[in-house]
Amino acid sequence: MKLARTLKTALRALRRNVMRAALTTLGIVIGVGAVIAMMEIGGGSSTAIQKTIASMGASTVLVMPGTAASGGISFGAGSVMTMTPQDAEAILRNCPSVASVAPVVRAQGTQVVYGNRNWVPQSITGTTPEFLDVRDWNDLAEGDPFSERDVRNGSKVCLIGQTLVRELFGGQSAVGKEIRIQNVSFKVVGVLRSKGANMMGMDQDDIVLAPWTTIKNRVAGSANAGQSAAAKDTSGTNAAVNTLSQIYPSSGVALYPAQSAVQQADTPQPVRFTNINQIMVAAKSSGHIRDAIGEISTLLRERHHLRADEPDDFTVRDMTEITKALSSTTGLMTNLLLIVALISLVVGGVGIMNIMLVSVTERTREIGLRMAVGAKPLDIMLQFLAEAVVLCMIGGGTGILLGRGSSWLVAFFLHWPTEISIPAILAAVVVSCAVGVVFGWYPAWKAAGLDPIEALRYE
Amino acid sequence: MDLIELKDIYKTYHLGELDVPVLKGITVNVAKGELVALMGASGSGKSTLMNILGCLDHPSSGEYWLDGRDISRYSAPQRATIRNDKIGFVFQNFNLLARTSAVENVMMPLTYGRHEMAERQMRAWATELLGRVGLADRAHHHPSQLSGGQQQRVAIARSLVNRPAILLADEPTGNLDSHTSEEILQMFQDLNARDGLTIILVTHDPEVGRHARRVIHIRDGLIDGATPALPVAAGGRS
């Protein structure tokens, strides 16, 4: 009741000089309007930027095999071979935060030959068509991706990056041509769109993608054959079968005498399951990464039958750097807006204080009169505070409408992405109210401190 | 017991190092229902006494009993309550709120009252008072649309709105022509006679003093002698 009356008195006082009230509150209107518009436009842009950054692989999670150690000597990441393609399928099936999964088999340092040209691509990757989903690489420059069936059949098909097109084909169409990798002939079915260098400066276009079954069985399996020519000579057919030579490369010096045929028959090779180098996982969004990592870890520990006290035999990594870039971009944006908001609101607030001070001086007689008829200093203070707050609230409300309106105009005419920012609107209301209290305080305090006798006599 | 009892009131202003005594021991009583004129030349301490009587200021020493309470040591907020409750003010320059209708001007003191009153009640009461001062048809006019006499009548209605014990009029006719002054003073007399309202007219004009039943003269911060008004007024007629 009392509050309602105070507000009513304040409104009545403001109505007495509408023009001045409007001009006074203009600072707040513009300040709040600018903040709202910036928040909405900035929020839209920020989301758009986030999407772009996310397409760089911010939502990608890498699952690598763990570290083997023997006698205190670690062999580095990926030195145990515990990851299977079935793991990849299980991840896709059982982890709700995961959007797509691609197993990866790598064959590095392998020469690719076309006609009389040759090239050693940075990466020869065996995978599934889902790899393109994970890397957001779906729109090919030319041709079509290979299919699931190619993967099942171990077809000798591949996709190549732009760098290979340049180096091997001199920029001419590569689709339909045959290249040779490790003496295996692959048909080029598609050419990848150019992605440029990644954050580490590695050329992402310097890549050959093929079904992982093909790479695993026909290329990577014999990747060391050339290097270990001497060993091959001495151990005969053995090297082609013994995939261990991949991991523990022989030096080329025969330390032990060659096995005889009898010895070979007596020492059967251990049965090995198919292992893959890593699994690439795309989380549903960059926000789902943490959940996805948790789910994958739990699932793999279960699948690998690890007891609670055993360490993980795999590592899960996210693109921390990119994620950081992402959050710092948005963080910077928000901070900038906050500073702009504060400055404009302070300026607006100073304007309010200025006019309120003028108003107090101008209405000294009125204050004296009100005191004479029984207004306590607190009543006077509340009246002027209420005026300042009402002024600011009106300004804030108008500013919100103005900001919404201008962001709508921007969205409508310039087609910039905008987002309604409810927190910004709430903050604008709270802040304009606070500005009213803070900057109305001093004039109100001055008014309340007036001596009624002096005030009544004031000319 | 009288409505107002001033006992040995002193008021000294401190202007830097200098002490300026303005009131030097004033003792005066005003009974309920009196119409008193407080007269004195400028600088006599008349305004200071009025401020103390009006509870706008407190005396440096002495006692001020108003309606059975010593209010000389009240704090500013307490004095504000007393002013709202017991005292109605009429000023020389009317002091109406600009761009505010007459009825809202009259209502204004009610908003600071202790008793909650509905807006409609307040409005009805204010309109009734405006009728009593003969401005029923001007209730929604702004002060700028009213003549001086009408403005002063609005001010009188405003001073009555809280049903005060005393009406304190500070040079109520100072800004009015003689004809209007007569009307206003007549109104004070009517209020005094009909409603038994205690009225103190503060003035330096003997013509005003003529309308009072008792005149209190102040000279150099002291009561000069309470004389019957009529002989003085008759002699001082200009």
Structural summary, described in words:
The complex is a heterodimer of chains A (459) and B (238). Chain A is of the alpha+beta class. Chain A has 2 domains: 184 residues, no CATH class; 200 residues, no CATH class. Chain A is built from 17 helices and 14 strands. In chain A, strands 1, 4, 5, 6, 7, 8, 9, 10, 11, 12, 13 and 14 form a 12-stranded mixed sheet that branches. Chain A has a two-stranded antiparallel sheet with strand order 2-3. In chain A, a hairpin with a 2-residue loop joins strand 2 and strand 3. The longest helix of chain A is centred in the last third of the chain and has 43 residues. The relative contact order of chain A is 0.18. Chain B is an alpha/beta fold and 238 residues long. Chain B has a single domain, classed as Rossmann fold (3-Layer(aba) Sandwich). Chain B contains 8 helices and 10 strands. In chain B, helix 4 crosses helix 5 and helix 5 runs parallel beside helix 6. The N and C termini of chain B lie far apart (38 Å). Classes of the chains: A alpha+beta (459), B alpha/beta (238).
